[in-house]
Amino acid sequence: MQTPTGFQFRWSYILSYLSFARVLTEKLNDCWLENIDHEINTTLDVQRSYIFDTSQWQISGTSTERLSGSHTGIQALTNTQQCLFDRAVLALRAGSRSISSGLSMRICLLAMACLIYPVVMFSFKQMTEWIQNYAHSLKEKTQDLKHQRQLAEDLLHQMLPKSVAKQLRQHKHVEAESYEKVTIFFSDIVGFTSISASCTPLQVVEMLNNLYMCFDTRIDSYDVYKVETIGDAYMVVSGLPERNGDRHVDEIAKMALDLVAAVRQVSIPHMPNERLQLRAGIHTGPCVAGIVGYKMPRYCLFGDTVNTASRMESTSLPQKIHISSEAYLALIKDNAYELQLRGEIEIKGKGKMYTYWLIGHKNYSVQNDSLVCHWNPNMARKKKMLAGSQVSVSNVS
């Protein structure tokens, strides 16, 4: 107050900064307009470098005037400061509230994450274990399914030829096929009716099962196909469903010699001192083969060749192989078999026919150890598996 010139200069300098802050700060400008006379504060002196004219604040003049003007101006500035402070407090509270809510939200999310993470990890572990168990179970079921499928295919191949079974699995229609030359074998048990009458049905089934299981294992050594068994009748064919040229009669002849020799080793369960005797017949000729039936389909043979082969068997003698002249002509080509003329006999439905006996093979003899037919399914299965493994090893070599 004692040096108004210096004070006025500093006061003007301060007011210039306030004017600059007012321009930059919206809240300060609002408070300025509310507390300071708009007309006084907007009076500008264009000749000076300051926005406000300090003369309007009564900075210069008498002491009374200076005190009055300074008090009014400072009170206005104080009110403006208080207004700015109040607004700043509100803004800070709003900002603090926003920050607090954001922080609270983050804390809540962190707490939820801390609570949920163990649950998620436990659930994930449980789900992983469940998936692993399911995969293991699925693998076991897949292997079991493959095993069951293999068993079904093996059973189907025992009932039908492999080529026919493959077409049926593919839902294809199996056409009947005609074969120019095949050889058919029939056999039955001599005195089967009297043997059956002297034993129980269970013993009959056991006897036939032992005999036919023995036959089934032996015919695997030959290129033949077992067609069916009807009671004590055993029917085998060669040359179908896979054609084998002219070898069909040779395969059937060697097989027939083998079976007739093998049956001597099969005992009757309820008559241990007795031995079964076989009566066999062979005929060569054309044949038609195809699938018959929808439920339990069967691969059947049709034609006069089947009837003639059956007649050869029914007119045969115990432990004899009765062959037709057609089979005889096919066998004498190689001059490898011992054949004997039976002569002209009456064949039902065919008239008189010249027939022959198949005695043996000149270069082939059945070994005594191969004649044993005491059937042991487990042992036969092991031998078959061992033979298959040996064949696979030889193929790899």
Structure commentary:
This protein has helices spanning 4-24, 26-35, 38-41, 63-159, 162-169, 192-197, 201-218, 248-262, 304-314, 325-331, 377-396, and strands at residues 177-189, 225-230, 233-238, 267-268, 271-275, 278-292, 298-302, 320-324, 337-347, 351-361. It is α+β, with helices and mostly antiparallel strands and 397 residues long. It has two domains: 4-109, no CATH class; 173-396, Nucleotide cyclase, GGDEF domain (Alpha-Beta Plaits). Strands 1, 2, 3, 6, 7, 8, 9 and 10 form an eight-stranded mixed β-sheet that branches. Strands 4-5 form a two-stranded antiparallel sheet. The longest helix has 97 residues, at 63-159. The radius of gyration is 58 Å and the shape is rod-shaped. The protein starts with a helix and ends with a helix.
